[in-house]
Design goal:
Elements lengths: L1 H9 L3 H18 L12 H6 L5 H4 L9 H21 L4 H22 L6 H5 L5 H15 L4 E4 L3 E4 L3 H11 L4 H25 L8 H4 L26
Antiparallel strand pairs: 1-2
Length: 241
């Protein structure tokens, strides 16, 4: 059993394994009181005034108490992060890392701006950790890339993957969870999907280009074509007379 778990862990792609490890280690550290959630949560004042910059990262690593809800989110993190990295982003580790970085940035900006808007500021002020929303973003992007895959929810009914985010959102509402957590993930996911997949198809321009210094961090990108084939211009007739 232990060997099987070890093999499963080793076979995970780089970003998935790294994020899962950091999430479990951070949450476990808080559970045994080596770390304190109070030093990890997103606090704009402490970030800007006390220069506690690490909070911009650590709020995406803590998933709450180590209970069934934690296992639920670790399953989704391991599954959909892995599926994205091994399929949609196969050989494009830097692009996948940039997707997560973009999603984290969008979520942070939404919460910061929402906290300054009257009538909704109290709602956004309660978002101390955005880890669950980032996980939901990955689920959303995966569903957009694989819309026709058949799925089943607890064996009760079947649907296609395109509706997975909405099914999970409905489940969150039924069990009394904060629906805003899922909604923020959907907003961030759709923003990425539109800018990366829809807008380039309409205009031929890609507003989301992975910076060179991020690409330089990941060796596997050296073995794939520099240009994404999805947005390459039509092939020319290059036959010779």
């Amino acid at each position: 059993m232990a060997q099987a778990v070890e093999e499963w862990y080793k076979q995970m792609p780089l970003i998935t394994r790294s994020y899962l490890t950091a999430a479990v280690a951070t949450t476990l550290g808080c559970s045994i009181e080596i770390l304190s959630p109070y030093s990890l949560y997103l606090n704009p004042k402490l970030v800007l005034q006390q220069y506690e910059i690490w909070r911009l990262v650590t709020n995406f690593l803590y998933f709450g108490k180590m209970d069934f809800d934690f296992l639920f989110h670790m399953f989704f993190l391991a599954r959909y992060c892995k599926l994205l990295e091994e399929n949609s982003f196969r050989g494009r580790t830097a692009d996948f890392f940039f997707m997560l970085l973009f999603g984290a940035t969008v979520l942070t900006v939404i919460v910061l701006i929402g906290g300054m808007i009257p009538f909704v500021s109290e709602t956004f002020a309660k978002f101390f950790f955005l880890s669950n929303s980032l996980t939901f973003m990955m689920v959303y992007v995966w569903s957009k890339h694989n819309p026709f895959i058949p799925m089943s929810f607890l064996g009760l009914f079947t649907f296609t993957a395109a509706y997975l985010p909405w099914v999970l959102l409905g489940f969150s509402v039924l069990v009394g969870s904060n629906a805003w957590v899922d909604l923020l993930g959907m907003i961030a996911g759709h923003t990425y999907y539109y800018l990366e997949d829809v807008y380039p198809q309409m205009t031929g321009r890609r507003p989301l280009k992975t910076p060179w210094f991020i690409k330089a961090l990941f060796a596997d990108d050296n073995v794939v074509l520099a240009a994404d084939a999805r947005f390459a211009p039509p092939a020319q007739n290059l036959h010779q007379d």
